[in-house]
Design a protein that fits this description.
This protein is about 40% helix and about 10% strand. The chain is built from nine helices and seven strands, in the order ββααααβααββββααα.
Length: about 250
């Protein structure tokens, strides 16, 4: 596996550089060619290709770095520089499910810190650590971009709103048991980390429209505007005031 040594420097273990099996490598090349074809310059495909190799190994292994560098005509240092900058790219084996507990201001006040502490104690792991069974990686997240549902927990970036320590422990135990778990909003069930990584690489899984992404709390402002007849000012409006009248003479907006 890959990790950090006592000095904090990135260490890539020899086994993470072991060559891909021939059939795996062939599939990677086919998928990489499809991704690269979407960009005017192939080096622009680095971000999705990192997700692609992560979908195979469960993290960005040494051999994944080498593969990206080879097909994009980059140095391994350039690829590693990007992979170590973004937290969605893991440089050591990740669990099947990344459970991120928001502990930013609002979620913390609403119980996020308590959720993280109780979950950490229950699982016996800390931030960016993985359970011995390889099922759960725990993360302390700065913001899940769902403050109106605080405290929020995410499992592989699917929303679980208004959580408590008890509900989150139940969530991780269901995931560890292999049960299908439905998020509060979005897809019908939480996919594995490898499956999500492939979607992030640009290969759709046909599940984007399975559920509603925005709930009532997020849409409250829109409801109030509709109830009061507020509309956005027109493109040629000289002021920022709201109007209750349509912009067009024919009643159009």
């Amino acid at each position: 596996m890959s990790g950090h040594d006592a000095s904090g420097h990135l260490h890539v273990s020899p086994e993470s550089k072991a060559p891909y099996a021939a059939d795996v490598l062939e599939k990677l090349h086919v998928d990489a060619a499809e991704v690269i074809s979407r960009y005017p310059q192939k080096r622009s495909a680095l971000l999705p290709l990192l997700h692609l190799v992560q979908s195979v190994d469960g993290y960005v292994a040494g051999r994944g770095v080498s593969f990206c560098a080879e097909v994009l005509d980059l140095t391994e240092a350039e690829v590693s520089g990007v992979a170590t900058f973004y937290t969605q790219y893991k440089r050591h084996p990740n669990g099947d499910y990344t459970v991120g507990v928001c502990t930013n201001t609002l979620c913390a006040v609403m119980g996020g810190d308590l959720i993280f502490d109780r979950l950490s104690e229950h699982l016996g792991i800390g931030h960016d650590e993985t359970t011995d069974d390889g099922r759960i990686t725990l993360e302390r997240v700065e913001c899940n971009a769902a403050c109106d549902y605080a405290p929020v927990v995410m499992a592989n970036w699917e929303f679980f709103d208004n959580q408590t320590p008890e509900s989150t422990i139940g969530l991780v135990e269901d995931l560890r048991a292999g049960k299908d778990v439905a998020p509060t909003r979005g897809a019908a069930k939480v996919c594995t980390f490898k499956e999500v990584s492939r979607v992030l690489a640009g290969f759709e899984d046909g599940r984007a429209d399975e559920g509603v992404g925005a709930g009532p709390a997020s849409l409250l402002g829109l409801k109030i505007a509709n109830d009061r007849g507020w509309v956005a000012p027109g493109a040629n409006s000289s002021n920022g005031s709201h109007s209750s009248q349509p912009d067009g003479k024919d009643g159009s907006q």
